[in-house]
Amino acid sequence: MTVTPGSSVPDLSGPSDPSDLAHLSNDLRLTCMRIARRVRFEATDALAPHLFSVLVRLEPGPLTPGELAEIERVSAPSMTRTVAALVGRGLVTRAADPVDRRQVIVAITGEGTALVAATRAQREAWMASRVARLTPGEQAVLAEAAQILAKVAAQ
Amino acid sequence: MTVTPGSSVPDLSGPSDPSDLAHLSNDLRLTCMRIARRVRFEATDALAPHLFSVLVRLEPGPLTPGELAEIERVSAPSMTRTVAALVGRGLVTRAADPVDRRQVIVAITGEGTALVAATRAQREAWMASRVARLTPGEQAVLAEAAQILAKVAAQ
DNA sequence: TATTGTTATACTCTATAACTATA
DNA sequence: TATAGTTATAGAGTATAACAATA
Questions:
Q1: Dihedral of CA A124/B12/A148/B124: which sign?
Q2: pTM score > 0.90 for this model?
Q3: Nucleotides of C under 7 A from a protein CB
Q4: Chain B, 126-145: which CBs lie within 7 Å of strand C?
Q5: Among A47, A127, B12, B93, which residue carries the largest CB count within 10 Å?
Q6: Pairwise CB contact (< 8 Å): A25 & B145
Q7: Interface contact B75, partner A, CB < 8 A
Q8: What is the pLDDT of residues B35-92, one digit of tens each?
């Protein structure tokens, strides 16, 4: 590695050879997967992953079952069941579309929004408590890295 | 944020108030989860997640079904099925323990090892191709960040 | 009698195919 | 005739409870 381990001052010349680059990308990948796993694991998820995922999709606004099935990449019958489960828990509502009555409008309820917020808060608390223990210098590096990683994820 | 967005030189004073810290930890968490998701999604996994996970556990050495069930946090009957599926694909072998004949020794095969290696290479390639597009300065920041994040994950 | 692992049975989530209602 | 969604049925995965083999 061309970067000194443990130093808080990054070597801005960056990795000098392909081997370093391979190590870096692999370390990053593994670390991100571990953190994601820990975050998911620590949270006492009150809802199964597929139900929670749909709930999050509905936060910006109502969608039809067909749209949800496409976004979540599951079949239409699967989404019918998933929506039914969420309706049964009072987390979403189903309503007939007034214009095209073949369609159904699925919308998140106040209870659903609250559940998503609570889960987010729980996951955020896990991460925040760990980041808070780092030195200001380390936090600054992570602040930089967060923006770079966001670009990587968006590619 | 006290850190200039887009700058390649981190502000080593770090976030100055709790709100920044909350934002940072949340950004990091979301970004890590997105990258983990993308990596898993992009890889054309030839094996279901639970099968792959067991295979990885067996890489260091053979284990019994009971040990695997505890590590993977599933029931013993579930592990019986999982091991049977892996045996059916030729990825692991089952053998009676010569000492305690109640026990079964599950070991990864050459084919199993090759499959794990191929999947790893695929996942690494996805990440490496994206990291390679970054500037040397950005890569240097990520190299620093990878070490800090590893500490966070290990906590 | 305790332990290791398997078989029996049931529940959940998934899918494809067939069906209903609407356009 | 085409489209949106649901119901019918089947295939994996999970679990608990009952069982067989071994210590």
A1: negative
A2: no
A3: 3-9, 12-17, 21-23
A4: none
A5: A127
A6: no
A7: no
A8: 988 887 776 667 888 999 999 999 999 999 999 999 999 999 999 999 999 999 999 9
